[in-house]
Amino acid sequence: MPKAIDNPAAPSGKYSKRQVNLANLGSPTGAKKTFEAVIAAKDLAFNIQKALDFLTACETCTPRVTYKLGAKCKFNAVPGRDFTAIDCSGFVRECVRRGTNLGDTFPDGSVNQHDWVKAQGFATDTINGGMQQDGAVRIAFLPPTPTREIGHVVLIHNGKTLESHSKVGPDSRDWDGTGWQAETVVYVLHAAQASLPAPMAAVANNFMDRLIATLKKAQDPGKDKFFFPDGIKQLDVQLHIGGSDTLVGIQISINGKSISD
Question: What angle do CA 82, 166, 93 make, to 5 degrees?
Answer without folding.
Answer: 50
